[in-house]
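Here is this case:
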Amino acid sequence: MSGPLLAEDGVARTGQLYIVEAEDEHDARRFIDEDPFTVAGVFASITVHRFWAKFLNGAREAV
């Protein structure tokens, strides 16, 4: 899943959010490194965070 991050005006783009399933940070970065926006040099910086999906397809995931 991905989409633009927007400024308070709801129009101006301030970044991009990607949620990807990856084995580790290396695989996540490889995904981003191959993205056309990354290849074109659009992003000034890239930050990777681990994410734990608590709800998936409308159902609460087991802890």
The helical segments are 25-33, 36-39.
